[in-house]
Specification:
A hairpin with a 4-residue loop joins strand 3 and strand 4. Helices cover 26% and strands 33% of the residues. The longest helix is centred in the N-terminal third of the chain and has 11 residues. It is an alpha+beta fold and 81 residues long. The N and C termini lie far apart (25 Å). Strands 1-2-4-3 form a four-stranded mixed beta sheet, covered by helices on one side. The mean pLDDT is 94.
Length: 81
């Protein structure tokens, strides 16, 4: 996991498959303030492309990084406004 970000909240979506990691990520981001960083921990390999696509198409969020480990995918999403 990355230590370069000041993580505001961690969202555990392990065991969930598309579209639930995106749904839960959007809900969690909506509750954060601008500048906050959400760490999303998933087991669905599809979450890598799903969260990337969602972040690219969503105003007010910035995908900072994605880490792929042993069947564990960690995403760092910053709320920008």
């Amino acid at each position: 996991m990355s230590s370069e970000y000041d993580i505001t909240e961690t969202l555990d979506v392990k065991g969930l498959s598309c579209p639930m990691p995106i749904v839960k990520t959007k809900q969690a981001i909506d509750d954060l303030e601008a500048g906050d960083v959400l760490e999303v921990v998933a087991t669905d390999s599809g979450s890598v492309s799903d969260i990337q696509g969602w972040a690219d198409g969503t105003d007010g969020v910035d995908l900072l990084e994605q880490d792929e480990g042993d069947d564990l995918y960690t995403h760092y999403v910053k709320k920008t406004d």
